[in-house]
């Protein structure tokens, strides 16, 4: 009997994929090794370090004082403002992003609209930090381009009504620059999953467009929409570079307070900063867990 016809030899595979103990190991693991190394060095180990530091004092002794200080009024207010900004930007980003995606995918628009919107969304969703803060200051600051044009040609003072790019509304508006494109990218596959047969069946039964969207499309899209909104919430809650570059210390949000505790000269308390980060991990972890659950539910409903 030849080796090629031996079923045992066929199942044994190449010798390079076998361990000395007789088991099998695939060389494909080498391809994902950099990912696991990156996750270990920049995600798992730093998270373990801050989890440990949240329950230590400056001398390395175990303490619950850092966790107890999270309930101080100033820190609770920082969490409250951060939650409000994240919720506002996530809600507005989800609504406008969904409308944009529906118009580009289901609307009767020219064919070049969707790839152009997708390309812009891919770039804008990653445009944040100091460049984004500078762009909004140059556009909507007190001497920004749009502010000056409104004052000169329409006799409308944007700041007379209480608006400020350094305020709650200004930071929320800035976050929308990357929240709306991110929503477009997330919800587009769900919109593509709406089958044409569902609309045809609704039309054949005498259903209107409103009946289709309210009773067929939106119930199918709802888990994806809600999951995307939760992901937008977590994305805004963890943003620090844009907020710090735009508002500095004028807006008391938890990410700026965390930065001040770890890197600042006045409020320096590294272990309290670890506790603040632990609270943020809990909030974003719950949001991401809910997003994963809703995404799996949406995939089941489309299958």
Automatic annotation (TrEMBL):
The chain crosses the membrane at residues 21-45, 81-105, 117-138, 158-178, 216-237, 243-260, 272-294. The keyword Zinc-finger does not apply. Its main location: membrane. Residues 79-293 form the ABC transmembrane type-1 domain. Residues 1-20 are annotated as: Disordered. InterPro entries: MetI-like, MetI-like_sf. Belongs to the binding-protein-dependent transport system permease family. CysTW subfamily. This is ABC transporter permease. It comes from Chromobacterium aquaticum.
């Amino acid at each position: 009997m030849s080796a090629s016809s031996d079923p045992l030899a066929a199942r044994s595979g190449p010798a390079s994929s076998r361990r000395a103990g007789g088991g099998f190991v695939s060389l494909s693991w080498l391809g994902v090794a950099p990912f696991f190394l990156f996750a270990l060095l920049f995600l798992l180990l730093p998270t373990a370090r801050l989890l440990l530091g949240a329950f230590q004092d400056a001398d390395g002794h175990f303490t619950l004082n850092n966790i107890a200080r999270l309930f101080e009024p100033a820190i609770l207010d920082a969490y409250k403002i951060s939650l409000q900004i994240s919720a506002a930007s996530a809600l507005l980003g989800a609504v406008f992003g969904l409308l944009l995606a529906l118009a580009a995918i289901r609307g009767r628009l020219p064919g070049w609209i969707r790839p152009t919107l997708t390309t812009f969304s891919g770039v804008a969703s990653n445009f944040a930090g100091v460049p984004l803060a500078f762009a909004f200051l140059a556009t909507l600051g007190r001497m920004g381009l749009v502010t000056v044009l409104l004052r000169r040609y329409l006799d409308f003072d944007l700041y007379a009504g209480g608006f400020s790019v350094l305020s709650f509304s200004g930071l929320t508006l800035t976050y929308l620059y990357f929240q709306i494109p991110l929503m477009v990218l997330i919800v587009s596959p769900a919109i593509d999953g709406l089958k044409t047969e569902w609309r045809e069946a609704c039309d054949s039964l005498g259903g209107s467009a409103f009946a289709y969207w309210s009773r067929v499309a939106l119930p199918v899209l709802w888990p994806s929409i809600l999951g995307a909104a939760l992901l937008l919430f977590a994305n805004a809650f963890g943003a620090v570079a844009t907020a710090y570059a735009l508002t500095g210390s004028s807006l008391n949000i938890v990410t700026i307070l965390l930065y001040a505790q770890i890197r600042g000269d006045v409020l320096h308390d590294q272990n309290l900063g670890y506790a603040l980060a632990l609270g943020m991990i809990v909030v974003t972890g719950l949001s991401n867990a809910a997003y994963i659950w809703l995404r799996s539910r949406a995939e089941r409903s489309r299958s």
